[in-house]
Amino acid sequence: MADPTDADGPADDSDDAERPDDLDDLDIDEDPEIDPDPDADRHEYDTESEHAFPDARLNEVLERIASDEEITAYLKAQNVNPVDRKGYNDHGTKHVEIVRDRALRLYDLLKAGGVEFNGARQQGLDEADEPVIIALAATLHDIGHVVHRHDHPYYSIPLAADLLDDFLPSFYDVPDQVRVKAEVLHAILCHHTEEQPLTLEAGVVRIADGLDMERGRSRVPYEEGGRGINTVSSQSIERVSLRKGEGTPAQVVIRMNNAAGVYQVDSLLKAKIEGSLLEDQIRTIAINTRSNGDGTEPIVDRIEL
Description:
The protein is an alpha+beta fold. Helices cover 41% and strands 8% of the residues. Strands 1-2-3-4 form a four-stranded mixed sheet. Helix 11 links the parallel strand 2 and strand 3. Helix 6 crosses helix 9 (200-210), helix 7 runs antiparallel to helix 8 (174-189) and helix 9 (200-210) runs antiparallel to helix 11 (261-273). It is globular.
């Protein structure tokens, strides 16, 4: 699959159809197949919450990431090429925060559902290292943008390797530094749909990257000044929720205000899920919340991946 150019576009205000202002009041939230989990729309990783995995080591790593000057500088610098020079959408600090939080949220749901991860385990690392690998990969997956937007996953590898060489000694001895570094680099590379994840940790990062797709944060290009499918689709995703699934450990619920949002879901998220090793563990439901102005049923009411 070709790498999307990931541009972001202006809001499309041409929709005259009625749509409730508060999506939480919609009947879809009472769908028996969609768990009305009040925590489902929370994406921020909370160090104080109970988790389905040992989180002490992760919390220490996250604290260090937040105070690391070099990582902070990279997250700002990596936005210049895609945004200022290419006119694409955000790939900086905010994108990284969203991807990391949703990756950890997805990981937590999968662990609660009994999914056994293989990356850290096959390296002889601890279970506590699984979320560390995920968090570091999510944080560093896009730093290759400082070199160029195109082929950035491949530029991310040497840059992330240098950062990890400085970062990991505070937490690991030399053999474990090498093992954690290897798993982080693998996950970084495989967020790119051209590469095949070999670990579930990498699969989580790959999917989480695709979940940053709400209105104004499209990962699929728009047509500047136009009203084509890319433009409408990029503005159609109102909300992406992660929650406990029925029949699967995790469920992604996507609320769209236009049936064109299906293009966004199919062009990006489907490609991220395919080959992630987690296809059977995640159920994706996309719901069109827009009612037609003439009282007829919307073209697309609900689809599932």
